[in-house]
Design goal:
single chain, alpha+beta, 4-stranded antiparallel β-sheet, 4 strands, 29% strand, globular, Type II toxin-antitoxin system HicB family antitoxin, TTHA1013/TTHA0281-like
Length: 95
């Protein structure tokens, strides 16, 4: 089976206690958080997949170098998500 993998830049903003708030400037409503970078990356990939797995027209991905961050320790990272796997993991709710 072919997998549809997407990659989008995400802004990671560090907070106290090793917490990161993550948002995707190109994906409306895609925001999450994680404790530590490992958890933050996992949460970012999960959030990206959950926002895009059923979209037919995906938003254009910005060049990470064009994304401006606040002077608060924030940084930009490219995050990938497997939309095929995310689609297969969803429950088909039917009323």
């Amino acid at each position: 089976m072919d997998h549809k993998v997407v990659t989008y830049p995400a802004i990671f903003k560090p907070l106290e206690n090793d917490i990161y708030v993550i948002n995707f400037p190109d994906v409306k409503g895609a925001i999450t958080e994680g404790k530590g970078l490992r958890d933050a990356m996992k949460m970012a990939a999960d959030t990206l997949a959950s926002r895009l797995y059923n979209k037919h027209n995906l938003p254009k991905s910005s060049d990470p170098n064009d994304i401006k961050t606040a002077n608060d320790g924030s940084f930009v990272v490219k995050v990938s998500a497997d939309l095929t796997e995310a689609f297969g993991n969803r429950i088909d709710y039917q009323i």
